[in-house]
Amino acid sequence: MNRYSLRARLLFLAATLLAVGLVTNAFFVSGALSGYLMEQADSRLKVTTQICARLPVAALEAAQGAERVPPQWSQFSNPVVVYVDDRGTVLDRMSPPRKLPRGSGPDLPDLDAHAVDARKGDPFTVGSRNGPGRWRVMAVPYMSVTGAPADGGSRPDNVIVAASLSPVDDTVSEIRTISATVGSILLCLLTAAGWLAVRSGLRPLARIEETAAAIAHGDFSRRVPALAGPRTETGRLTASLNGMLVQIETAFQAREEAEARMRRFVADASHEMRTPLVGIKGYTDLYRMGALPTRRNVDETMERIARESERLGRLVEDMLLLARLDEATYLARPEAAAPDQYPLELAPMDLRTLAVDALHDIHAMDPTRSVTLTGPDAGKAASAPALADEARLRQVVSNLVGNAVNHTPPGSGIRVGVGSLDGHAVIEIEDTGPGLPADEQKRVFERFYRADNSRSRTAGGGSGLGLAIVHALVSAHGGRVELRSEPGQGCRFRILLPRLGSGTPET
Length: 507
Description:
Blueprint: H1 6-54, H2 57-65, H3 71-74, E1 79-84, E2 90-94, E3 103-106, H4 113-119, E4 124-141, E5 158-164, H5 166-201, H6 203-216, H7 233-288, H8 295-331, E6 347-350, H9 351-365, E7 371-374, E8 385-388, H10 390-406, E9 414-421, E10 424-431, H11 438-441, H12 466-476, E11 480-485, E12 491-498
Parallel strand pairs: 7-9
Antiparallel strand pairs: 1-2, 1-5, 3-4, 4-5, 6-8, 9-10, 10-12, 11-12
Helix pairs in contact: 1-5, 7-8, 8-12, 9-10, 10-12
């Protein structure tokens, strides 16, 4: 059966079960009908036998010779009456004037006095002498006192009455024929209806097959149409498959985006590393060619080489830091066997220290700027205790400060906020620069992403890793970074960390 389709197997199973049910029903119905008709025949045979055992033989002979069947003989179910003595010898045999059924009478066994007593007056069935017909027979002692035949023979001792079972057999046979005919027609009709029902019921599987084929050809947006209610098996299967297809499409999109980010990362990293390397190589080539005749030229060149080396070193350190943070995040997945966290040196601290240092850093970078220290959302500055790695948080704040100074016009104001908010220790940097549109806000934390999408290193430019490092380090502390910006209204970067001792009042 595995070679055939599911539709064919379901239809075959349904048709087989239906056929078995129809045959079983016909068998029990015909059996019950046969039993009922047999009981009716036995009842009539008992009445006939009782009458024949009490009537004189001459009366039955007169009824047999009549041209018309008397009412008394008609109610005897067309019996064959045989009178025998105690040794089983037949003394007289009578049948009604009507023609006997097929078989020309019953095939009676030898019934002497002992055999008649053994039967105890119970009906039994015998065959016909010449044919397939059956007879129901009953043997009882003869009880009439005037039982001699009309020709003056001896008086019988026992009487045997046999009634044909042809009406019973014919009725049962006709019922079986009708059941077989109606059952065959019903089987054909229900099989055809079952084929239509199975075809309709399996239509969702055909749609699933079409959807799977379309997905195999690259159309990951295809979904299985809902052809049944959500509580049905087909509806639940459709919902599960569509959910799986969403996950597959999301996974493929994520893979494509990851591949695109990886290509961009490799290209940007290569460019970022090539720039200082080209500078270092150029300066060394100048030295080897003797283009640095004076000590002053050599010192200036070495200073430039040192700056490019520091720039290259910072870039490599930033990339290594992000790689270690990525590894820690990957290993900290729920399915990881032994999660490892990024090694942070956590200790109690107050973010107000970082906020004050940020003020000094901004003044040192651009003394013309106006800098204010407030609390979150421009309120009053307050304590912000947290359990954190101070060195790494200084790196986070330094990146945010450098981002605010380098991407806003000279002399524009910057606000540093610090305090507690909703159980979090908060520090935020807000500038009054040009701001970012919504589409760029979603990408500012990507590595090597720059709003102008340029690789040129103009004044104030960076590698594009600063905000990515900010996001990664804050996430390693169990916190989050929030960005609020509108074009022309500046940007606000807010760092939220779990507040240390949130149940204690602020100082």
